[in-house]
Design brief:
Rossmann fold, about 325 residues, five-stranded mixed beta sheet, about 35% helix
Length: about 325
C-alpha cells in the first residue's frame, strides 16, 4: 500500500503494464512533456519516444492510427486531452473501433484504452467541461468506466489495458490531485460497483467525482438520522445492476446523482431499471440529480450554478425520506 494521487495512480498502472508487456504504448499530444495534466510525466524518460509517442494535433489521426496498431497486435493507450476534443474522433471510435469484432466476424479486435478527461474544471468553459459518458454507454462494443478514487484509477487502468475490447476511460479533471492509498495487487473487474457507505434508509447511486460528493452527502445525512447506502458504479458498461437492485430492495428509496446533464443521462437508465425490476420495493419516487441542459459558463459564479454538490444530494435525500409512493 502506498499513498498517491489520482493522477499518479493511473500513471503507475500504465508504467507497470508497459514494463510487463512491450505491446503496450501511449499516443497523443504533448505526451513527451508529460501531458496537459502531467499524467505521463517521466514515462518518456523510461520508455522512450517510440512508446510514449507524441502526435500531431489531429484527434481523428491519433485515434485512427492507434486503431490500426491495435488490430495488428499492440495495446495502445490513446490520450485525447479532453473528452470534448475526442469528439473530433467520434467516427473512428463509434463506427470503426466499437464495431471491429462484429464487422470482421471475430477475426479482429481493438484492445485500446481511450483516455478522455471529463467534467467541470474551474473556468474551463463550454468546450472543456463536458461529461459525455452517457453517449458512449449507448454504443454497443464499448466498455465505459469512470473511476473516482486513486485505488480505482490504478486497478481499473490495469483492467482496461488488459481488456480485449475498446475501453472509454473517463477520468475527472477536478480530482487529479486527490490522494489515497493504493494497493497495486487489488483487482477491480468491470461491472463491479463499490459500496462506499452502508445504510438502510436510502440508496444513492453515483460515479466519477460525483460519487465522492455522494459520500460526503451521506455523512451529512447521518447527522440528521438518515443512513444512506452509497454505491459508486465505477463502470457504466457493464454496470452492476445486481448491487443497485439489492440496495434499493433493502432501503426502498433511490437517488441517482451525476455531474453530466440530467436529460438523457445514464441516471435515467439506472432509474428505469429500478422502476422496472424493483418498483414494488420503492417507498418513494426515484429522484435524479444532474446538471441542467445548459452550456457551462466561464465565470465561476455562473459555473457553480451548474454543479451538483454534496449539499444538493443531502437535501434531496432528506426530501425523499419524507416522501411516500402514492397509492
Amino acid at each position: 500500500m502506498a499513498v498517491m494521487t489520482y493522477g499518479e495512480a493511473a500513471k503507475l498502472a500504465i508504467a507497470d503494464a508497459m514494463r510487463a508487456d512491450p505491446a503496450v504504448w501511449c499516443v497523443g499530444e504533448d505526451l513527451g512533456r508529460g501531458g496537459v495534466f502531467q499524467q505521463y510525466k517521466g514515462l518518456r524518460e523510461e520508455f522512450g519516444a517510440d512508446r510514449i509517442s507524441d502526435a500531431p494535433i489531429s484527434e481523428a489521426a491519433i485515434m485512427g492510427a492507434a486503431f490500426g496498431a491495435a488490430m495488428v497486435g499492440t495495446r495502445p493507450i490513446v490520450e485525447m486531452r479532453f473528452a470534448d476534443f475526442a469528439l473530433c474522433a467520434t467516427d473512428e471510435l463509434v463506427n470503426q473501433i466499437a464495431k471491429a469484432r462484429f464487422m470482421f466476424g471475430g477475426q479482429s479486435r481493438a484492445p485500446m484504452v481511450i483516455r478522455k478527461p471529463m467534467g467541470l474544471w474551474r473556468s474551463s468553459a463550454a468546450q472543456h467541461s463536458q461529461s459525455l459518458e452517457g453517449w458512449y454507454v449507448h454504443i454497443p462494443g464499448l466498455v465505459v468506466v469512470c473511476p473516482a478514487t486513486p485505488q480505482d484509477n490504478y486497478s481499473m487502468m490495469r483492467a482496461a489495458i488488459a481488456c480485449d475490447d475498446p475501453v472509454v476511460y473517463l477520468e475527472h479533471k477536478n480530482i487529479w490531485g486527490m490522494e489515497g492509498a493504493v494497493d497495486t495487487g487489488l483487482e477491480v473487474p468491470f461491472g463491479s460497483a463499490r459500496q462506499r457507505r452502508e445504510g438502510s434508509d436510502l440508496t444513492i447511486v453515483s460515479w466519477s467525482d460525483c460519487a465522492n460528493r455522494a459520500e460526503q452527502a451521506a455523512e451529512d445525512l447521518a447527522g440528521s438520522g438518515v443512513e444512506a447506502d452509497v454505491i459508486d458504479l465505477r463502470s457504466l458498461w457493464p454496470w452492476d445492476k445486481a448491487a443497485v437492485l439489492a440496495s434499493v430492495r433493502r432501503t426502498g428509496r433511490l437517488i441517482v446523482a451525476h455531474e453530466s446533464v440530467a436529460v438523457g443521462g445514464f441516471g435515467a437508465e439506472v432509474s428505469a431499471t429500478v422502476a422496472e425490476q424493483a418498483g414494488d420495493a420503492l417507498k418513494a419516487p426515484v429522484r435524479r440529480i444532474g446538471a441542467p441542459r445548459a452550456l457551462v459558463p466561464y465565470a465561476p459564479n455562473l459555473e457553480d450554478k451548474l454543479r451538483v454538490t454534496a449539499d444538493m444530494i443531502a437535501e434531496a435525500g432528506r426530501a425523499v425520506c419524507q416522501q411516500e409512493v402514492a397509492e
